[in-house]
Amino acid sequence: MAKRKTVLRVDGFSKSYEKGKLAVDNLSFDVKEGEVFALIGRSGCGKTTTLKLLSGQMRPDKGEAYVDGERILGPHERLLAGHDKIALVEQDYNLFNHQTVSDNIKYPIRRSSKEYQEYRLKELLRICQLEEYAETRPKELSGGQKQRVAIARAIADEPPVLLLDEPFSHLDMALRSDLRRMVKNIAVEANICVVFVTHDTHDALAMSDRIGVMSKGHLLQIATPNEIYTKPLNKYAAHFFPHCNVLNQEELKKMDVERENGLYMARPEWLKVIDKEVKNHTAKLVHVDYFGNASYGEWEIEDGLRLWVHHDSFYNYEIGETKSVVLIEGTDWWKLED
Ligand SMILES: Nc1ncnc2c1ncn2[C@@H]1O[C@H](COP(=O)(O)OP(=O)(O)OP(=O)(O)O)[C@@H](O)[C@H]1O
């Protein structure tokens, strides 16, 4: 595959609101053309502040960002807020409710020729699946449709970078799936690099090429969704995905697993329930989280030692039932850093 060029480079961003308390702490990352990059992390870890620094709403105390090699200016260096090369879609969409969808989308390119405006509008209505709503006003649209208009308007002027703040937080599961696909298509088709912040680990895993895990203002780990899921750096990154098993050396010993001191992780899919009795692996089912297409069973191996196990949709275990829980072949406990 051809090497993609870096479009956005963030170099050592730091920002504090209060003296001595860094909201963003020496943050560096880069995003390539056509790439979707997710920033995930617990509430208050600095995700929104990072987007505000990037979108030019706020000035970093330290550090710089570059788009196509050109330093982006802070709000104190510009007459108008924001950047032409970086578009931000905020959670509340900020659409013009008294104008039609078409007028909203054409707003950023209103100074271009009429021919270009019409050509671009047609293209954006198609990409964002809004053709039938061209003459509708935003107040008559659903949340998902409004989100699509906001994205179409943000990319109208062909910015190389698109920032999305919690893009799908108001939407139901079916719509989220459609929009994830749309954003991914936009990134590839228009060669835009997309940075989005989210609390939703499904959105991050399903949509991004790489994920940055933030903690207390800094980036803990940057990796592909698969690496983040299977090889998280530490307990914080591991627990970002629910139903995660993190055990220490002593706990592993109870299952005859000998390891050096430290913490170890196994995803629920790495474990399975078998009928055969296996010494030190017998477990009682104490709880089930049911999701329709699958479920997660909490199995108690010893008093207090519980493991989450992924069950497929055909499981028929009863609470209180005793079986054995073992690792599936080809998987192993993953060592986490402190
Ligand atoms: N305007 C502000 N004044 C003072 N402190 C702020 C301000 N905005 C954010 N903070 C603090 O900065 C830190 C980072 O906040 P930020 O909103 O960037 O986090 P976040 O990861 O986006 O959180 P969430 O997921 O809840 O939106 C937090 O400790 C927050 O309390």
UniProtKB/TrEMBL annotation:
SUPFAM superfamilies hit by this protein: P-loop containing nucleoside triphosphate hydrolases
PROSITE patterns xrefs: ABC_TRANSPORTER_1, ABC_TRANSPORTER_2
ABC transporter domain residues: 8-241
Example of a GO MF term: ATP binding
Superkingdom of this protein's organism: Bacteria
InterPro entries with a match to the protein in the record: AAA+_ATPase, ABC_SmlMolc_Importer, ABC_transporter-like_ATP-bd, ABC_transporter-like_CS, P-loop_NTPase
Pfam families: ABC_tran
Any one GO biological process: quaternary ammonium group transport
Coiled-coil parts of chain: none
Keywords: ATP-binding, Nucleotide-binding, Transport
SMART domains (UniProt xref): AAA
Protein name: ABC transporter ATP-binding protein
Gene source species: Flammeovirga pectinis
